[in-house]
Amino acid sequence: MSKIEDALKKAKANRSNHSQVASTNSTVDANSVVSGTSMSVVKKTSSLIKLMRDEAAADEGELINKGIILPDSANADVTDSFRFLRTQLLQKSKNGNFIVLVTSCVEGADSAFVSMNMGAAFSLDESKTSLVLDCDFQSDHFEDMLDLDYDVGLIDFLEGEAEIGDILKDIGIKRLRLIPSGHKLHIESEYFTTDRMKVLLDGIVERYQDRFIVLNSPAISDSVDASILIDLVDYVVVVAPYAGVSIKDLDESIKKIDKSKLLGVVINDIPKWL
Amino acid sequence: MLYTSQELVSFVLKDCFKYRNKIVIAFIVISLAVLAVGVDWPKLYKAESLIYVDNRNVIKPLMQGTAVTAESRDIARNAKQIILGSNILNKVLEAGSWLEEGPTPVEKEYMIEAIKKRTVIKKEGDSLIRVEFTDTDPRRAYLTTKNMAEYFVDIGKSNKVEESRSAYDFIEKQATEYLDKLTTVDKKIKEFLTENPDARPDMQEKVTSRISALQLKYEDTSLELKETEIKKGSIQKQLSGEAAMTISQSREGNYRKKVTDMENQLETLLLTYTETYPDVVRIRRQIEDMTASLEAELKARDEAVKNAKKSGETYLDSSIATNPIYQELRSSLSNTETKIATLNTRMIEIKALLDAEYDRMRRIEEGDSMMQSLTRDYDVNQNIYQDLLKRRENARISRSLDTQQKGSTFSILEPAKLPVRPFGLRFLHFAILGIVLGIAIPVGIVFLLLQFDGKLRSPRAVIEELGVPVLAEVPHYWKGNEKNRLINNYRLLTVLISAILVLFAVVSSLKFMGKI
User: Fold this and answer.
1) Is this complex's ipTM strictly greater than 0.85?
2) Higher pLDDT, A9 or B30
3) Which of A90, B65, B160, B490 makes the best surface tag, with the fewest CB within 10 Å?
4) How big is the A-B interface in CB pairs under 8 Å?
5) Interhelix angle for A224-232 vs A195-207, to 10°?
6) Range of the domain at B322
């Protein structure tokens, strides 16, 4: 790709970023009626959106290295498949926003890749924004994928040690925000049963009608976290690696999920010759 | 879950991609291994010969219908034993180029074993035998096969001559035996006929006709006898005492008539004369006399009858006896009696003759059954003997046919030829096989693993077996320069495969030029 084209693209990206932030601000203003408990959260969120505006869009090559889809790239087929996935989810939700949990049926199904790109797919649409929460406190897949190095994250928020403004991150993708899991040194179980998690999610959903929330959860086969998280979300998507799980194991994983919330299976990482 | 063929192809291709490096390594190893075997594989030459063998033995057709013979040695069936017997193999070793290096007896044994292993003897149809021999040396293959076939045919021919000779001898012996038997039976018949003249075949008829003639005569005689006896009875009746009485009563009547007449005369005289008239007196006297005579007569007759009754004889008045008719009757009676006696004698004689003939008849019948059994023996033996004579002539001809080797019972239809081209697997086959196996084995393993690992590949399986929709099928994402690395990997693999193909080409051409 020539330098001129690069420059053009960057300029275009900057423009759309600014307009998106502007629209988000207007939405925040319009919906200033909030219940008592979620008040502080919303305050933190709005303060964070200012931060978002300051971040520069990430370099295309960087995104490719991290495995994040782009509107048009060498991995157009992957992008198309996520677009297709997005369309399906929107059809299911009748175009309203929702919280979707992405879990893998076995360890190594790479739900981080799917959840991250699902968020990216929503944010490809200029009228939508997305928020990706890494709720996988048991592995570093998400961090490894995005090469993240944040000290503060969801854990800190749930423990009350951090405010939402501290944990909401921009990794250079337009209309997409990320909440990392945070440090995993002192993990105590059942963070997700606390009110803070529910307040966080409800607050975001109620305030931003065009924001889609994607939760990356640990594999359902070896974590109770996934089961707890399912109660908090609207939909569940199960990631199955191609040729990496037996039908029987997949069946067992699926049985743990509430049928009304289960949207379906995403077969991931199908090999291709080129 | 059964995959459709389209799915299967797609899955196999994906797995092949996954294991591409291993597959290429397996391809290199397998194809090189097969190539190495091919380089080292010996060239084999096969020579073959087709032998015609008349499977039938000689004695069977010759004796057909007469006797059931035991199965004679079936040379075709035993062809393998004969050809691979030490007899022929030793000759083959000597005549072929086997003993050029002067092997020890142990080495010779090994050679014989090797020949046995490399020889194939097949029966083709009913009467063809194919001998095949394989060797690395085409000339030796040719010589060995040729010699095997020739020695086998020689042995077969001499066996055949021997067989037909013994067949002839056998038939000849049988013929002689039957001739002896025939002569013996003939002699027995002659002796029997001498001893029993009645046993001639036409005697029975003669005796039968004679018996019937005698019987006829006997019946005639007995009829005649009966007639004569009746005749005698009637003559006797005529001559009986009642007849004599009649005659005697007639004389008495005469007296009574005379008395009556004289009484009538007296009465007439008395009408005219008195008692004292002489004539009356005379007549009275005469009447008295006459009455006295009558009484005397009556008395005499009663006495005679009484006497006659006593003695059983017919009372005959002297007057009667002198009667000519009576005389004639008497002689007729005597004649009849004589005739009766004659007839009786004849009856007895005829009866004796009949008995003799019956006796003879019995003897003839007894002799007949004996004769019949003798004749039967004779006939049977004669039939067999004549049959054997015919067969002996056939056997003689077939013996001379075999002796002069004119009968085509053993011959080499296709003589062994010097093989020009090696047979079996050649280097080219190995080269092709190496490449084919190099691809087929790893891909086959991938295919089998795919069939049995039970992993999720097909979205159809999720939908059909779990009833859960598949939202998306996400292809692999090339991160960073992953794609470039893949292209480099492809390049490397292509170079490796090309190198192998070049190696194949070089080795093939070297092999073709005969340098290895």
Assistant:
1) no
2) B30
3) B65
4) 124
5) 40
6) 203-371
